[in-house]
Design a protein that fits this description.
By secondary structure, the chain is α/β, with parallel strands linked by helices. It has two domains: 201 residues, 3-Layer(aba) Sandwich (D-Maltodextrin-Binding Protein, domain 2); 144 residues, 3-Layer(aba) Sandwich (D-Maltodextrin-Binding Protein, domain 2). It is 38% helix and 16% strand. The chain contains 14 helices and 14 strands. Strands 3, 4, 5, 6, 7, 8, 9, 10, 11, 12, 13 and 14 form a twelve-stranded mixed beta sheet that branches. Helix 4 packs parallel to helix 5 and helix 5 packs across helix 14. The radius of gyration is 21 Å and the shape is globular. The chain starts with a helix and ends with a helix.
């Protein structure tokens, strides 16, 4: 039995909380809610005063821009911050170790990989949910438990140097001979959100959409050799020499470099790399009209540590991050979207109300319960 299954069985028996979570552009998804610690509700000024009585606030983050936000927070409030940038799996493992041993570590985290965060950190109560009172009437309620700090999207992007338009409008095109060895995606075993996306395409309702897209593209019903059409699509792109990369930056640079003279050349990677079109003079263009989806998106959660030594300083920093001022390190570029709808977008970007309609949303419960089986399936083709 793999680790995900063991943890899931544990949580089924001992989980103390339950609830629901709704993603942008989608419907209600069954998911356990993050535990909420009963605490005294303070006004903003009371929180500032309490925070200044504490020490250095420690944050673990999956986004390196936390360093700039920390510097701005320190300048504003005079409270020092120790920010550590970690990969998603490193953060989960570090919090798990600190939580299980009671060791002093982070006061709060910015974490992604919803399945593992939900199953291994929230359900075991190493992290808990805190929504700043000043934000309860601003952040949409569906993003408040677990509290989403931001959303990231990964989109089909192609080299448009010698193209008159998008080279495909159906995901099944990527399984044809023209696309053999010409489609790139970061190795799902190196980034949890990519493994979650491949898990999500096996979800029955999404798999049904993929089956319909197959019929639309090939003009016939799909013949399954796997559990459903989602698995079938995964199998097909892997057998069509999918290029598994080590980073989205390298993927963008490989696809976008000029002078390749390749009519078929695309990848699925973070939309924020689209900025390279200007900054690195790359030939990049997103595809926003693909059946049945144009990519996927996922939240970065902001959650308090149960072992927080400086909880008030952490809460003040969380409040700051959810403001337009605190979100500046991210809002300066496209491809990262605050859960606070009042934070403006970069000129030329699209709001989550647009992305939510064309991208697969991450369902942490489904990913937690099913990713183990999908990873076993992927093992047959990747290793």
């Amino acid at each position: 039995m793999n680790n995900l299954k063991r943890i899931f069985l544990f949580c089924l028996i001992f989980s103390m909380v339950s609830g629901s979570f709704v993603f942008a552009g989608g419907g209600k998804e069954d998911a356990p809610a993050a535990p909420v610690v009963e605490e005294k509700v303070m006004t903003h000024d009371e929180l500032v005063a309490a925070a200044k009585e504490e020490g250095v606030v420690v944050v673990y983050s999956v986004t390196s821009r936390i360093a700039k936000a920390a510097a701005a927070f320190t300048e504003k409030y005079g409270i020092a911050v120790e920010a550590t940038n970690l990969k998603d799996f490193e953060l989960v493992e570090k919090i798990s170790k600190e939580g299980s041993t009671g060791a002093v570590g982070a006061d709060f985290v910015l974490a992604q990989d919803g399945g593992r965060v939900m199953g291994e950190l929230i359900n075991l109560e190493y992290l808990y949910n805190y929504v700043p009172p000043t934000m309860k009437d601003i952040i949409p309620v569906q993003f408040q438990n677990p509290l989403a700090f931001s959303f990231i999207n990964k989109v089909f992007i192609y080299n448009d140097e010698d193209s008159e338009g998008a080279p495909f409008n159906n995901i099944w095109a990527l399984t044809t001979e023209e696309w053999r060895g010409n489609f790139q995606f970061k190795n799902p075993f190196q980034e949890g959100v990519n493994a979650n996306f491949l898990t999500m395409v096996t979800k029955p309702e999404i798999a049904d959409q993929i089956a319909a897209a197959y019929k639309e593209y090939f003009g016939k019903e799909i013949t399954l050799t796997t559990p459903n059409a989602g698995y079938e699509w995964i199998k097909s792109i892997l057998e069509n020499d999918l290029i598994l990369t080590t980073s989205d930056t390298k993927t963008a640079e490989s696809i976008g470099v000029r002078g390749q003279n390749k009519p078929y050349n695309a990848g699925l990677f973070v939309y924020s790399k689209f900025r390279y079109k200007k900054s690195k003079n790359l030939a990049l263009e997103p595809i926003m009209d693909v059946a049945p989806f144009s990519g996927f998106y996922y939240p970065i959660y902001v959650l308090m540590s149960t072992n927080a030594v400086n909880p008030n300083a952490a809460k003040l920093f969380i409040e700051f991050l959810l403001t337009e001022e605190g979100f500046t390190p991210w809002s300066a570029n496209l491809g990262t979207y605050s859960s606070n709808p009042n934070v403006p977008l970069v000129e030329g970007d699209h709001p989550m109300t647009v992305w939510g309609k064309i991208l697969v949303k991450e369902d942490p419960t489904f990913c937690f319960e099913n990713r183990g089986e999908v990873e076993e399936f992927l093992n047959e083709y990747i290793y």
